[in-house]
Amino acid sequence: MAILAIPAACVAGDPRNEFIPPALTETKVVQNLDAELPAELIFKDDQSQMIRLGDLFDGKIPVIVSMNYSNCPMLCVLQLNGLIDSLREIDLVAGRDYRIVSVSLDPEETAEQAAATKQKYLASYEREADAAGWHFLTGTEHAVASLAKTVGITYVYLPKKKEYSHPAVFCLCTPEGRISRYHYGIEFPPQTLRLSLVEASEGKIGTLVDGFLLICFHYDETEGRYAPAARNLMKVGGGLAVCGLGLIFWLCHRHRKQVMTVSVP
To answer: What is the CATH number of domain 3-187?
Structure first.
């Protein structure tokens, strides 16, 4: 379990000019890796239909879970724009190879607002996508707080500004609804995001090359990307060397048999 301090920039104007108490200028994210999301929580989707959180996990494809809100003046827009920009660069298709679930932090947000936000990002994606695989949810204060607690996100409502101070973070979840990986900030390297999706899918999506890369690379929390894993690279290199020697031995043995066959009168 890791606790990270993340700047809470989701306030109007330039954060450097805000006079906010120090306790509100940072929020903590507790990485609850492998925690199971509370499947029993009920939210309202962008079509005003009540939906059980657990029903969004089908056991087949991973799910990106983000907690934002439609009226956020800055950070949510930057974070979701960065996410969509990265997703646009990979060949995995939203709604088919993975789902996106964005849960509003604002219990007063309406389904109409959520629907408008969804259409905005579907248009921004600029690729064919299954709209049914994108979910922008609203819920009660209790449901939102319960999900945030499990994900490990702390957020604060600022009454004077009528805004929420919260971290820029989203998590990747397995097809069964367990947290696999966290990503922070507003820019996400496409290859890192792709490998995170493949990793979270538990082998259900991706290519053989992706699988090979995940064997040879590990996620570096400090760099926010996948870096070479020396021990695994050595194992793979040793395995390839053994296979190479075995192939050479087999070819030599085969050639010798052919020569002996030709030499016999």
So the answer is: 3.40.30.10
What b/e readout covers 197-232, taking b as 16+ CB neighbours within 10 angstroms? bbbbbeeebbeeebeebbebbebeeeeebbeebeee
Q: Where are the domains positioned within the chain?
A: 3-187
Q: What is the pTM of this model?
A: 0.75
Per-residue pLDDT of the chain (265 residues; tens, 9 = 90+): 555 544 444 443 334 334 344 444 456 799 999 999 999 999 999 999 999 999 999 999 999 999 999 999 999 999 999 999 999 999 999 999 999 999 999 999 999 999 999 999 999 998 887 888 899 999 999 999 999 999 999 999 999 999 999 999 999 999 999 999 999 999 999 999 999 999 999 888 877 776 766 677 666 766 666 666 534 434 434 443 344 444 555 455 454 555 455 454 5
